[in-house]
C-alpha cells in the first residue's frame, strides 16, 4: 500500500535565513498513529504546516494521498484535517453551525447525518445548540477536532492535542484518537508529553534542529534503545562495591543500601544469573529485587542530548 503521506528531501529556509528543516524524508502509513517528538523550535510545526499547505516548502516534495501539496493543493488539503494548537473558535456561533460551516469551506455539500455522527462520537451532541463561548476549554478542544473532521478527511493532524488539559480529559482524548484510528483515519500528532507518545503511537519520529534523527516502531525503539536495570535492596549497607564485582556495571546508592545493575534489554544474556552467584560468593545478601526499563522519556532525552 503506498504511503498516505510521502515527504521527500524537504528543506525549508525562512525569509530570515533560518533553516528550519533540513532534508526530511518521511513516509506515513495509512491507518497508523504517528507521533512527532522534538524539543521547542525543532521544526515540528513547520513540517506540519508544509504538509497542510500553510507554509511553502523550500525544496523537496510532499504528497498527501498522492496529491502534491503545492501543485495540487485543493485535492491534497481536502484529505487533511488539522487541529491547531491554539483554540480558535467563533464565540457567538453554535457548535452545530461552526462544524457545518467548516465542512462548507472545503466545498463539501451539507451532510447533517455525518455531522451528527461526528458530534456524537466526540460527546458533543448534547451541546450542539450551545454557543461556543459557553463551553469549557475541554469541550472547545472537542469542537476543534469536530471542525477538523467536518470534511471527512483521511488524515488528521493534532498539534499538541492535550497541552494544558487535565488528566481526565487527556484520557478521553486518547480514547477518541484511538476510536478515530479504528475508523481508518491516519493520525499524526505532535506532543511534548512523552508518555502520550508512549501510550498512543504506533511509530515515533524524533526531530531535532530541523533534522529527522529517528523514525521507528515504538516497540522496536523501546527495545533497541531501552536499558533495563535490576535493583537489589541489600540486607546490610555496603561502603563500596567489592573489588570482586568491579567488572559489572554496578552502582551503589549514596546510602549504600541499594545496588543497581544496568544491562542491555536486547542482549541474549543479561548476566543476572552470574551476578547473583558472585554476590552470594562475596557474602552479599539482599532482601528484595526489582527490574525496571528505561522510559521513552529517558531514550528521547539521551537522543537529543547526544546531538546537542
Ligand atoms: N516565519 C518564521 N520565520 C523565521 N523563523 C521561523 C518562522 N517560523 C518558525 N521559525 C523558526 O523555525 C524554528 C522551528 O519552529 P517550529 O515552530 O517549527 O518548531 P516546533 O518544533 O514546532 O517548536 P514548538 O515545540 O516550540 O512548537 C524555530 O527556531 C522558529 O523560531
UniProtKB/TrEMBL annotation:
Pfam families: ABC_tran. The keyword Cytoplasm does not apply. Keywords: ATP-binding, Nucleotide-binding, Transport. Residues 5-234 form the ABC transporter domain. CDD domains: ABC_DR_subfamily_A. Transmembrane segments: none annotated. Coiled coil: none annotated. GO terms for molecular function: ATP binding; ATP hydrolysis activity. This is ABC transporter-like protein. It comes from Rhodanobacter spathiphylli B39.
